[in-house]
Amino acid sequence: MMNFDVEKIRAQFPMFAGKDKPLIYLDNAATTQKPQSVIDAVTKYYSEYSANVHRGIYAISEKATHEYESARTRIAKFIGADFEKSIVFTRGATEAINLVAYAWARHNLNPGDEILITEMEHHSNIIPWQLAARDTGATLRYIPIDETGTLVESEKYINPKTKLFAITQQSNVFGTTNPVKELTEIAHSFGAKVLVDAAQAMPHLMVDVVDLDCDFLAISGHKMLAPTGVGALFAKQEILEEMEPFLGGGEMIEQVTMETATWSEIPQKFEAGTPNIAQAIGFGAAVDFINQIGIEKIKDYEGEMTRYAIAKLSEISGMQIYGDLFCRGPVISFNVSGVHSHDLAQLLDMENIAIRAGHHCAQPIMRKLDVPATARASFYLYNTKAEVDALCEAIEKAKWFLATD
Amino acid sequence: MMNFDVEKIRAQFPMFAGKDKPLIYLDNAATTQKPQSVIDAVTKYYSEYSANVHRGIYAISEKATHEYESARTRIAKFIGADFEKSIVFTRGATEAINLVAYAWARHNLNPGDEILITEMEHHSNIIPWQLAARDTGATLRYIPIDETGTLVESEKYINPKTKLFAITQQSNVFGTTNPVKELTEIAHSFGAKVLVDAAQAMPHLMVDVVDLDCDFLAISGHKMLAPTGVGALFAKQEILEEMEPFLGGGEMIEQVTMETATWSEIPQKFEAGTPNIAQAIGFGAAVDFINQIGIEKIKDYEGEMTRYAIAKLSEISGMQIYGDLFCRGPVISFNVSGVHSHDLAQLLDMENIAIRAGHHCAQPIMRKLDVPATARASFYLYNTKAEVDALCEAIEKAKWFLATD
Amino acid sequence: MSEIQQLYQQLILEHNRNPKNFKEIEHADCKLEGYNPLCGDQITIFLKLENDVISDIGFQGKGCAISKASASIMTTMLKGKTKAEAAEIFNKFHKMVTDGTIGENVGKLEVLAGVHKFPSRVKCAILAWHTTMKALDEIKAEDGKR
Amino acid sequence: MSEIQQLYQQLILEHNRNPKNFKEIEHADCKLEGYNPLCGDQITIFLKLENDVISDIGFQGKGCAISKASASIMTTMLKGKTKAEAAEIFNKFHKMVTDGTIGENVGKLEVLAGVHKFPSRVKCAILAWHTTMKALDEIKAEDGKR
Ligand SMILES: Cc1ncc(COP(=O)(O)O)c(C=O)c1O
Ligand SMILES: Cc1ncc(COP(=O)(O)O)c(C=O)c1O
Ligand code: FES
Ligand code: FES
User: Fold this and answer.
1) Who among C35, C37, C119 is closest to B62 (CB)?
2) How is chain D split into domains, by residue range?
3) Spelled out in words, what is the top-level CATH class assigned to the domain C3-138?
4) pLDDT band for position C115 (50/70/90)?
5) pTM of this prediction?
6) Which of B198, C44, C71, D12: CA 20 to 30 A from C88?
7) Residues near ligand 2 (Cβ within 6 A)
């Protein structure tokens, strides 16, 4: 298929390679598996140049600094940012969003201002704004969604009071890809800043911050082959430079007196303390891995697999798939009548299939759908149609198991 | 020596083992090297049970959750905490301190209240309080130090206005070990809460939170053999339970409506987003490694090496060692007259010796000593007296090099 | 029996399909909602007491097979029991689903022993019980006020 | 020559030991402090101008061998130069210590070319220069005001 050799790709993942009956891993929206090259980049750092960055005047520290900064540069390039210092390393997308909520929102929002988000956000793009609204007196508003997981009349909700518009580029429940570029343009026309939560989008499609023109972009490294414990915030240079610091500590200061301090240049200003060095270097290796295959090819491959999965799943009687059936990323939430999603997940686990069940950190969506939980299968570049077949079979088996006397 | 077999220990560190002329690594106060068992714990997670924690109803997620939580339990036990849920994983000591500054201090301090720290703090235990003081109207005060790196008349500074006392247990410049237990008792008698920065102490001596009776303890995992990107906050259960959340997002909430949310139980309440799973598991392995040797033995071994190093270094003419010469942890800051510390570090690097030069993120101390910077050699359990000898020789050589016409 | 078969025993599947006392009780002495934050499932317990004895008990709500079966079995076991007896049964049950100990006289509850091997499902099994115990406490508190 | 020898060339060591123009200038047209946040070192530049020409220049402060030698060599090269000439020399110097390009007529400055191999020391070499360029700018700005 389109010279996309999935077996060759799978061979590079120790969780699958050389295993007799490898796990069918369909929980990629939570975190992905890691290729050997990423694991090796981490091990190599620990075994060959394990040292702190930025302040050591010795060879392994300079090497560590170089690799750490080079990862930053490659990530910047991956999202089309023309300035690598626009990238701040974080633990994940959650910390990236909170960084903006603390260092930008709490210093720029006032009573009467509006923070606009959508009903399809992950809790990580809801709670930080609830807390920021509480602390600043700003009002939190939501663009509603319909049952297909599509935003309804978004433009009506953006107005001159909107100071910040925070939106997910791709839903972790419906797989909906939102028109973030168009909405950013509208929001900007009202003078609002725009934060795009790319945690789910970036693993699967080309994200270009210059094209989107967003002010902030939240990135989850571990959801795109990188080690756990790493993500990033992109922000426009001038905003980062004006922003107040977030965490205080080593690395982020220039001069400290007893009473006050001046801040380092960006991005160090936002990276207080010893950073997640090995993880950032691993993130760089993950981006290399994706680049070698090509994000467009990944998108096409996943698109075909998703369409296949939706067609196959739809054949199961009692199957309810949420969201738009045709236009979506590789994440499918569903319920099977008579089978609770947690029982389903448990029974699939016995068939060596890992899916997720629950509210997927998106309780407002669950309330909209009027269900307590859904099952969710999410794919990545190493999944196969054969795995989709196995999933469907196992669902039938679970149905039968729970229904039989 | 006291059945402390340093060669056997070194053999377990890939940065030293099997290398012809292994690096003499004397920058342990910045971050330590990692034993194979820690690297293996990380690799094993990525290769055998790579999955997100807490919400997956499938075997590898349950295994990951179990290992992650078991690391928490072992760290709690290591510091004598009787409740493992008192441990919150963070990126490092810096994030742990900032967590308290945001989630506790900003909700509990008022104008007129005093935050008391000392002149020997690391920037990570200064800046968060400068920012918290700015935001709450509280006053930041310092217990002064003398030139030997000893606190001066500490008791005089603790008073009924003191609401928070934050102090390092061991100085990363002088190696001074502060009488934190006694000072905590005094601070408590005035009703203040006490935060102990154990980033430097915990790698080298037994820290017992029940004995110290501190309210908060900031821990740096990567300074005690753990992977980069991990540390922890210990806090007393009742304080953690009452504290406001810090980062908002997935994992840390119980129920979310459009307007507000309720929080998970501790410690999840403070671990928003996908945690640094592999790193926390690696931290558990690091604690196991230390336990196998015994922290008391490590302390004795390092004590003897430190005394030896001070004696040898003192023989070098023009040598100025800062701090108390006799009673200290394994970190030695010094200057050699006529040799700038950065030139020294650069020249030592050519001899395969890694030391640090600079202000060590402690500019108030530098101002006290009236020097822009110092050189610093810091030891850990894998260093040897032979390495100390090499250090002294290389210093002599650097002196000669810079002085010769 | 495999672990999964231990978890989903025949009796559990039956109670899941045809839960006992799956009903609303009008004029209940206490009606209480329980919530499992891990999955979002909700259960409502209805209780009637006569002189310290549970004279009627019912439940409603959505939940997984484990939670429904557990609630169903619970209602059959608690009807006619005093508060003290109910508390005692609950303690045995709690111990069983957390560490696997099968105490004396647990009776039909034994089918839920397999749960202890699945930490993420313990909350499912306990949900109805916790809610009921809380409801009994509330009635007690109100009695105190009278 | 090893990299380290390229960094610490004989001439640099000499300037470090006996820096030229290591002096305060009374009644300077401009006196400016420079600070290297990486190490905490501080340098003060003193400047006298006569009709756009640097008639005297001196420096004081603490710093490493690289920063001291660089400042010392700089003072010897800039004395008698116009502001425009000084800026041109600085540009060549800046390029040399960051990417190693040795431009035309860099003269004695060439001894500092080795610095570009040591990213953490580039700031050392540039400290005095940056401060001087800023000082010249400030004088210009003041001239503008007059
Ligand atoms: C849409 C979305 N935003 C944010 C997050 C949080 O990302 P992280 O776990 O990297 O903090 C997630 C994943 O859980 C997500 O799906
Ligand atoms: C005394 C002290 N406190 C705090 C820190 C910060 O620790 P971390 O790098 O884990 O954030 C350090 C180390 O840099 C330190 O020496
Ligand atoms: S999954 Fe919700 S109660 Fe079992
Ligand atoms: S080390 Fe400070 S200027 Fe060179």
Assistant:
1) C119
2) 3-138
3) alpha beta
4) very high
5) 0.96
6) C44
7) A 250, 273-274; B 29, 92-94, 122, 124-125, 168, 172, 197, 199-200, 220, 231, 361
